[in-house]
């Protein structure tokens, strides 16, 4: 298969899937190496980035998916009469951050970090497809462990968890806080 025909074929497969598809699966289906398909997919991602189109191809870990650029979201919602998703609550954002930065984690771990019950918040994040069950620990009770999904990556416009911004370390926080002995207070009578 010549290069342009291969690109067109891979592009058609990614479009037809509608959901993220791994390069390995495309390679198996077309009888080609994963490296070759990854190179073709990465090339398509770059082609779509360079052209001003209403669709693009994004890389999500080892998968690829077609989607629309953010700038068309309002037009799509209007035409398709899609209601805007409600933003995440503060609690949901905190739980999602704990899971994203420490995955895979148990509900007990999240609750220990936050200090409150997180059952409802975790259920809500699962229903929004931002997190999912990743298995069970080999401990008494076999607790479930949770991790983020490819939908999470799409929502936050990142290719992998490694692209999350680094957490501030404790030394930076301590240095930036004002110490009581450094502040000047006037005499109070």
Give an account of the 3D structure.
By secondary structure, the protein is an alpha+beta fold. It has 2 domains: 3-69, Orthogonal Bundle (Arc Repressor Mutant, subunit A), CATH 1.10.10.10; 90-166, Arc Repressor Mutant, subunit A. The protein contains 9 helices and 6 strands, in the order αβααββααβααββαα. The chain has helices at 3-17, 23-30, 34-50, 73-80, 90-102, 107-114, 119-127, 150-155, 170-176, and strands spanning 21-22, 56-60, 63-67, 105-106, 131-136, 144-148. The strands form 2 sheets. A 3-stranded antiparallel β-sheet has the order 1-3-2. A 3-stranded antiparallel β-sheet has the order 4-6-5. A hairpin with a 7-residue loop joins β5 (131-136) and β6 (144-148). α1 packs across α3, α2 (23-30) crosses α3 and α5 (90-102) packs across α7 (119-127). The longest helix has 17 residues, at 34-50. The radius of gyration is 22 Å and the shape is globular. The chain starts with a helix and ends in a 13-residue tail after the last helix. Mean pLDDT is 84; it is low at 173-189.
Please tag this protein with its features.
189 residues; alpha+beta; Arc Repressor Mutant, subunit A; 2 domains; 3-stranded antiparallel beta sheet
Condensed summary:
The chain has about 190 residues and is of the alpha+beta class.
The sequence of SSEs as H and E is HEHHEEHHEHHEEHH
CATH superfamily of the largest domain: Winged helix-like DNA-binding domain superfamily/Winged helix DNA-binding domain
The assigned CATH architecture of the largest domain is Orthogonal Bundle
Largest sheet: 3 strands, antiparallel
CATH class call of the largest domain: Mainly Alpha
The quaternary organization reads as: single chain
- Total domain units: 2
Strand content: 5-15%
CATH topology of the largest domain: Arc Repressor Mutant, subunit A
Distance between the termini: 88 Å
Count of DSSP H/I helices: 9
Number of strands: 6
Please mark out the parts with pLDDT under 50 across 5 or more consecutive residues, or reply none: 173-189
Shape descriptor: globular
SS-based class? alpha+beta
Instruction: Enumerate the strands of the largest sheet in spatial order, edge to edge or round the barrel.
Output: 1-3-2
């Amino acid at each position: 298969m010549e290069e342009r025909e291969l690109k067109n074929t891979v592009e058609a497969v990614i479009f037809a899937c509608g959901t993220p598809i791994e390069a390995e699966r495309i390679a198996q289906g077309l009888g080609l190496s994963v490296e070759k398909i990854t190179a073709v997919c990465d090339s398509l991602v770059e082609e779509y980035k360079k052209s001003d189109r209403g669709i693009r191809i994004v890389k999500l870990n080892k998968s690829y998916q077609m989607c629309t650029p953010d700038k068309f979201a309002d037009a799509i919602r209007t035409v398709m009469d899609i209601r805007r998703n409600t933003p995440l609550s503060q609690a949901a954002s905190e739980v999602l951050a704990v899971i994203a930065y420490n995955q895979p984690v148990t509900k007990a771990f999240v609750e220990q970090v936050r200090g409150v019950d997180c059952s409802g918040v975790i259920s809500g994040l699962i229903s929004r497809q931002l997190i999912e069950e990743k298995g069970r620990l080999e401990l008494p009770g076999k607790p479930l462990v949770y991790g983020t999904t490819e939908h999470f990556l799409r929502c936050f416009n990142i290719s992998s968890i490694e692209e999350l911004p680094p957490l501030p370390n404790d030394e930076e926080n301590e240095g930036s806080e004002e110490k009581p002995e450094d502040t000047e207070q006037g005499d109070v009578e």
